[in-house]
Design brief:
Length: 75
């Protein structure tokens, strides 16, 4: 979870490693490398996961931001 790109709404008990995104409530938005609105997410608290035996944590966040384009819905 990148605090610059994600707003953690809830931490849940899970078998996934700590800080793994488990649900995206609302996608975030960015343009170029500037975050306009962070993604609102649920993350694992890691309480149900086995300790990492490789020494390499899996805390890389999912790419859950969208690039902003000037698009309008014509429904």
């Amino acid at each position: 979870v990148d605090p610059n790109r994600h707003e953690v709404m809830v931490r849940v008990e899970s078998d996934h490693p700590e800080d793994t995104i488990s649900e995206v409530y609302e996608p975030g938005y960015e343009t170029d490398d500037t975050v306009i609105e962070p993604a609102k997410v649920t993350v694992s608290d890691g309480s149900g996961s086995d300790p990492d035996t490789t020494g390499e944590g899996d805390t890389e966040a999912a790419d859950d931001t969208e690039t902003v384009d000037d698009d309008t819905d014509d429904e």
